[in-house]
Structure formats: C-alpha cells, structure tokens
Amino acid sequence: MNTTHEITVGQIVKSKAGRDKDRAFIVIGIVDEQYVLIADGDLRKIDKAKKKKVKHLQKYNIISNEVKKRIENDEKISNLFLRRELEKLGLS
Length: 92
Hints:
- By secondary structure, this protein is of the alpha+beta class.
- Helices cover 20% and strands 35% of the residues.
- It has helices at residues 65-72, 79-88, and strands at 3-4, 7-8, 11-15, 24-30, 35-39, 50-53, 57-63.
- The radius of gyration is 12 Å and the shape is globular.
C-alpha cells in the first residue's frame, strides 16, 4: 500500500512541528497509518530518513513523479537528486 490519508510516496510535504519545522521534504516511504518517512537530501539524508507523524506534516498537492517512479521501481535515489527536486519546485 502506497498511501496513508492521501499522502503518497514522492509527495512534497512541509513539517509543522519539531526541529525541522517549516522545512520542505519529500515522502520516501509509508510506514503505517500514522507515520511516513521523509527526507530532503540535506538535513535529512536518504539513509537517515525521518519517521514523522502524518499529522505533523502539511501536504502540498505536488508529487515528484520522478521520485515516486524511482522508489516504486526500487531504483537508487541520491541526496543530491532529492535536493534538486526540491530546488526545481522552489522549495529548498
């Protein structure tokens, strides 16, 4: 299953709480109903993705199809790639 309350892999989200408040991230995994894994390639690297409660995230109606496609195909995603995606969307 790749969605939790309308959050999907590759979706852009913004943290509403915690030390990373107001930062933009990309959802790179769905843990369960309450949690997702987020990373931005900078503060939160892919290999140390943050497990974050969905309720602490503000969802953007933006989905990085490139990230989504790569994750669904189990392809490698680099931190640089995530940073570029966020930059492209003007969110870094």
